[in-house]
Amino acid sequence: MAMEQPQMELIGTIESAGLLGNGITLASLDQAGHGVGGMEKLNLTGEAYEVVDALSFFGKKDKSPEGNNGNSEPEKMDDGDSKGFWGTGATNRAVMPVHMDSEVYNMSHPKRGRALIFNHENFHPQLDLGRRHGTERDRHNLTEACKKLGFEVEAFDDLTYHEILEKVEKLIRTDHSKHDCVLVAVLSHGDHQLLYAKDFSYKPDMLWQSFTADKCPTLAGKPKIFLIQACQGSQLDEGTKLARVSMSRTETDSNPQSYRIPNHADFLIAFSTVPGYYSWRNTTNGSWFMQAMAEVFNKYSTKKDLLSMMTIVARKVALNFESNTPSQPHMHQKKQMPFITSTLIRDVYLTPK
């Protein structure tokens, strides 16, 4: 197969917006905390307070116990590494889908779950973005792979920003109680911290920020999978040798009747390339990332967990592909490295139901 033959790509196409032209966006490019000055120890209420040195603080601490005049030893507490205060300290509740110490997610619900695929080939002229030839192959391959994994798949072509927003909000409001997980994929042009709909750009976190456990409780404790095939910048990867890195897993041995999880647990977000770099697509066979993913899912879904499969996908993209554009020497023989972010706390097995 083409994937096992390095340097056999006939035409390489980049998944970048290139120069942004009019710069039409709906999202700010500012980083969180950009422009924030140094820490200031402000006491707005006149009460005793604790200093935290971070950009955000989750929860609200109680005042000192009544009768404490400040002479006793202060209570030992955990500090956060952020500045600012988020949340009210209220405890959200959701059904516990699996025992706290389980090493695997509960994938035995009646249904696998919903999968939305947002495929973009054509864009509004004002964006000055090229047609994404070959994306129809990605759409087909990913759709078929997800169906084989048991997902209820809906694929959409060339939606506007507001249409995407509507689909995502509808998915958030869906009752996922009988579902194992959820999957959302975007195949489009992109740039640093930006994805492109048909008419506007938007920040990628728009896709997943409302799927947290507190905002979508029927998905609490369940895997939430996001796959992004798009550029994240304009840099080219010249390639270099890779070294092995071993990782270990830490287990706990408690046996609670209930337990609390972070709201941002259970996400897997996979980008086709690292931040700042191009993502390549063959105009006939589709993108390197989606080619690899379809092959790996079809071959290993009955044998390996999701994160292990994504590691194989990353290896195949990194080692089995190289751009072949001799007519454009500055684009020739370039590499690509997928970028996978995980807050999964268990293994995800997508074996057929």
UniProtKB/TrEMBL annotation:
Stretches the record annotates as Disordered: 60-85
Domain Caspase family p10: 257-352
Coiled-coil spans in chain: none
Keywords for this protein: Apoptosis, Hydrolase, Protease, Thiol protease, Zymogen
GO cellular component, one term: cytoplasm
Cited Gene3D superfamilies: 3.40.50.1460
Domain Caspase family p20: start-end pairs: 111-235
GO molecular function per UniProt: BIR domain binding; cysteine-type endopeptidase activity
Protein name (record): Caspase-1
Organism: Folsomia candida (Springtail)
